[in-house]
Amino acid sequence: MTLQLRVYVPPHPLIQHWLAVARDASTPSTLFRSAMTELGRWLTYEAIRDWLPIQETTIDTPLAPSPATFIDPTVPVVVMPILRAGLALLDGAQALLPLASIYHIGFVRNEETLEPSCYLNKLPAKFDPQTRVLITEPMLATGGTSIAAMAELTQRGVDPALVRIISVVVAPTALQKLSAAYPSLNIYAAAIDEGLNEKGFIVPGLGDAGDRTFGT
Ligand SMILES: O=P(O)(O)OC[C@H]1O[C@H](OP(=O)(O)OP(=O)(O)O)[C@H](O)[C@@H]1O
Ligand SMILES: O=c1cc[nH]c(=O)[nH]1
Ligand SMILES: [Mg+2]
């Protein structure tokens, strides 16, 4: 069986609405942050529906026994925000995954070469091979940052098929690179945009997600 990277763009009016707010250049930082939180929430909701581990059991209602499904607390669930901009999606993701462990990683792109460099890595030395990892990263542009982040996970024992990335705007360049390197990966995005400009920014995109989130 050949695996193929899957990119889901959920056709949900709340996702489209908050994407439009985030894209608009006249949206102030406070509202931009709200839009990103909402996108984090709804993209997480879509991403975890067949990913969150469950256990089937039986419970007693006040009237009769009933089959029941619970979240399986024995399977580790991790959220990994890629700083800085990935923090903007974290609150929404954490609201739906309150028991997940949060492992931060920080990357910054060199503005000329567009090469990412890692300045913070709070990942443990090893992950349980069953670990589900949700990456929050609003922009997949050249794909350099997300590929480097995936490498940090897989070298610690994470199965790429158990990783989901939630992203706001993704470019075809990043999708091609991620597909070649991690064909079993699943991505949930608000939009797939046309491409990149000469500075490596996604067009039409939403500008610099980190700067707009933190008002820098
Ligand atoms: O796919 P790529 O070409 O690697 O680009 C995507 C990365 O670029 C931006 O980070 P930036 O370096 O601006 O850091 P920031 O999040 O701190 O603003 C963005 O937040 C992504 O992490
Ligand atoms: O368009 C882009 C590309 C990379 N990082 C951003 O914040 N925006
Ligand atoms: Mg930035």
How would you describe this protein?
This protein is of the alpha/beta class. It has a single domain, classed as Rossmann fold, CATH 3.40.50.2020. It is 31% helix and 29% strand. The protein contains six helices and 13 strands. The protein has helices at 13-23, 29-47, 87-96, 144-154, 172-181, 209-214, and strands spanning 6-8, 54-60, 65-71, 77-83, 101-102, 105-109, 116-121, 132-136, 139-140, 163-170, 186-192, 195-196, 202-203. Strands 1, 4, 5, 6, 7, 8, 9, 10 and 11 form a nine-stranded mixed β-sheet that branches. A hairpin with a 5-residue loop joins strand 12 (195-196) and strand 13. Helix 1 (13-23) runs antiparallel to helix 2 and helix 2 (29-47) crosses helix 3 (87-96). The longest helix has 19 residues, at 29-47. It is globular, with a radius of gyration of 18 Å. The model has no long low-confidence stretch (mean pLDDT 97). The chain binds 1-O-pyrophosphono-5-O-phosphono-alpha-D-ribofuranose, uracil and magnesium ion. Uracil binds next to helix 6. One of its GO terms (molecular function) is GTP binding. It is an enzyme of class 2 (transferase).
